[in-house]
Specification:
207 residues; two-stranded antiparallel ribbon; nine-stranded mixed sheet; alpha+beta
Length: 207
């Protein structure tokens, strides 16, 4: 008699199990790949936003920059020179709050590069004017003088004394150009580049 050999074959149930296993593995792999892609995209967005924040300045100048040459010469300033800068700052649209106590002010011209210190006193709060190479908050609009955090919709008027000893600075003479760099802890620095007028008065608008 002719003997039949047994042939192993997939049943419908076995084929379904194998198919389901392939689908599950593919789904898990796709989920892992998509998760890694989303994570990479989020990290890239953080880098982009961080770069934008570092490349743009949160602080803007509101109005004009004034030079004060009133009174007698002080701290080595010669008569007829500007010894104090006064200007108002605020936040750019969408800008994050800036702590002015952690902000650096640097004065520079052709011969001088000097960092100004933050005065512990505030003129608008009954204190004295800033000393040599110091700056302070003169007044605040929509804000509190006792708080150095510049918030949205707030404006702070800054007074900066740019005179030092006789061998360092005599003030800003007529026609002299200078730059006052404002460097906040976050964001790009804001340069204020101005030139003193050819004829200096008691109160001068700088251009």
């Amino acid at each position: 008699m002719k003997r039949f050999q047994k042939v192993q074959a997939f049943t419908g149930l076995e084929a379904a199990i194998v198919l389901i296993a392939f689908v599950v593995v593919a789904a898990v792999f796709s989920y892992v790949v998509l998760g890694a892609g989303f994570f990479t995209t989020q990290q890239a967005q953080k880098v982009v936003y961080s770069g934008i924040g570092q490349a743009t300045s949160n602080i803007i100048i509101i109005g004009d920059v004034y030079g004060d040459a009133s009174g007698t010469a002080q701290n080595g300033a010669i008569p007829g020179s500007i010894h104090t800068l006064v200007f108002t700052i605020g936040l750019a649209a969408g800008g994050t709050p800036v702590n002015l106590n952690q902000t650096t002010f640097v004065y520079q011209n052709e011969t001088i590069l000097q960092t100004l210190g933050f005065a512990s006193n505030i003129s608008g709060n009954g204190g004295n004017p800033p000393g040599p190479w110091q700056w302070e908050i003169l007044s605040a609009q929509n804000g509190n003088l006792t708080n150095t955090m510049l918030q949205p919709n707030e404006q702070f008027t800054i007074e900066a004394n740019i005179t030092g000893t006789m061998d360092i600075s005599h003030g800003i003479p007529p026609g002299d150009a200078f730059t006052l760099m404002i460097r906040p802890p976050i964001g790009a620095a804001l340069p204020i580049t101005k030139t003193a007028p050819g004829s200096i008065s008691t109160w001068n608008v700088l251009y």
